[in-house]
From TrEMBL:
Lineage: Eukaryota, Fungi, Dikarya, Ascomycota, Pezizomycotina
Domain NAD-dependent epimerase/dehydratase positions: 12-249
Superkingdom, taxonomy of origin: Eukaryota
Gene3D superfamilies the record matches: NAD(P)-binding Rossmann-like Domain
Protein name, entry field: NAD-dependent epimerase/dehydratase domain-containing protein
A Pfam cross-reference name: Epimerase
Coiled coil: none
């Protein structure tokens, strides 16, 4: 039997609720009993989302609505809430979290415009119309120009690292122009944690492949660029906590104290100032393989021919990865794990954020202060639990 709704607690809507961060946010709210009502909206169904066992309750069919949130005609279905009693007052969502948008890299501009930019604006306008108390827009630290020193919220955004970041920033800008929208933007670095794909998952799949190859002959896993290239990080559980804190804070505050501009935007990052060298060291410890960095000659060639270099690396690894999965009995579901390299993610660009403003204004403290050998081992264990790990 469903537990009674506590009307004193906020009602919560998560757009992109089955995405990587969305499901952890839903779980954070569910396990800490923070909301009276929680609704997850996503285009895919929970049954097809490779949910971890601990996420199935938070992402249950009862909390779920299948819809394309980028479409104006879907908004009534997404935002309408039933009264608590047949003759009770109309209810609205208190907090709306936008974790949606196109997560793949190297897509056409039109794809990001429709699936990220348009999504943010459509949902943002509806949230404003309905008087939502806090609208949390999840953005990325890759909107900043590459910098080895930590970027503050007002720093340059003229050269975003990826097309995805370009359209995320465009959405941020347009959302600030919507009258009455109680907007707070969070810019995150590389998010990692259990079940993660993309940035960390790719590195771990590659390391596993090199570990397997080292049975025949010693081979060093060499990274492009340099060991001091910044690749700042945040654990997904801290990302979820940060989003909740941001919503609670924004519902009570109209501006950032002593801010030099009106835009309410925060960087969220751990304390580790993670670099490629950090990651190479951890991979070496976890997988017992040699790691290193390419020389200047190779790096110069890669800068001029990145597409060619990435294609060569992918050609060299993808068949071997498929063989390794097959040998391990992993047929259809390897989850998000693959050594496939994205050209956009391999660019020579530093991702380095200053999270001081969010910590001092909102009071956030990351529980996972830095990425460590133990954190990475926990990620590998999560893959094993899901039977994704060869």
């Amino acid at each position: 039997m469903a537990s009674p709704v506590d009307p004193a607690k906020p009602t919560v809507l998560i757009i992109g609720g089955l995405g990587y961060i969305g499901r952890f946010l839903a779980n954070h709210i569910h396990t800490n009993n923070l909301a009276s009502t929680i609704r997850l909206v996503d285009k895919q169904l929970p049954q097809l989302a490779s949910l971890a066992p601990e996420h199935t309750a938070a992402c249950s069919q009862e909390n779920f609505l299948q819809a394309d949130a980028s479409r104006p005609e879907s908004q009534a279905k997404i935002f309408d809430l039933q009264p608590l009693t047949p003759d009770g007052p109309v209810r609205q969502f208190d907090y709306v979290f936008n974790c949606g948008g196109e997560t793949r890299f190297s897509q056409e501009d039109e794809v990001y415009k429709l699936r990220s930019y348009q999504l943010s604006l459509t949902v943002g306008k509806e949230a404003a119309k309905r008087g939502v108390k806090a609208f949390v827009e999840l953005s990325t630290g890759t909107v900043y120009n590459s910098s080895k020193s930590p970027c503050k919220e007002g720093d340059k955004t003229t050269k975003p690292h990826t097309k995805q970041a370009k359209w995320k920033f465009a959405a941020e800008e347009e959302l600030t122009k919507i009258p009455g929208l109680r907007l707070v933007v969070l810019r995150l670095p590389h998010v990692y944690g259990p079940y993660v794909g993309r940035w960390l998952g790719t590195q771990l799949a590659l390391a596993r492949l090199y570990q397997d190859r080292n049975r025949d002959k010693a081979e060093t896993l060499k990274y492009l660029w340099s060991s001091d290239m910044r690749t700042n990080t945040l654990h997904v559980e801290d990302a979820a906590e940060a989003m909740w804190l941001a919503a609670v804070w924004r519902s009570k505050n109209d501006s950032i104290p002593k801010a030099t501009h009106d835009k309410i935007v925060f960087n969220v990052v751990d304390k580790g100032n993670t670099t490629q060298g950090t990651m190479a060291g951890i991979v070496k410890q976890v997988f017992k393989i040699e790691t290193g960095f390419q020389n200047t000659l190779v790096n110069t060639f890669a800068r001029l021919n990145l597409e060619h270099v990435v294609d060569d690396v992918n050609d060299d690894t993808l068949d071997d990865w498929a063989d390794l999965q097959k040998e391990s009995g992993i047929k259809d579901n390897g989850g998000p794990l693959s050594p496939f390299m994205e050209k956009e993610l391999l660019r020579d660009a530093d991702l380095c954020l200053d999270g001081g403003r969010f910590e001092s204004v909102v009071g956030f403290r990351p529980k996972h202060e830095r990425i460590t050998k133990e954190e990475v081992e926990a990620v590998v264990e999560s893959y094993k639990r899901m039977k994704w790990w060869p």
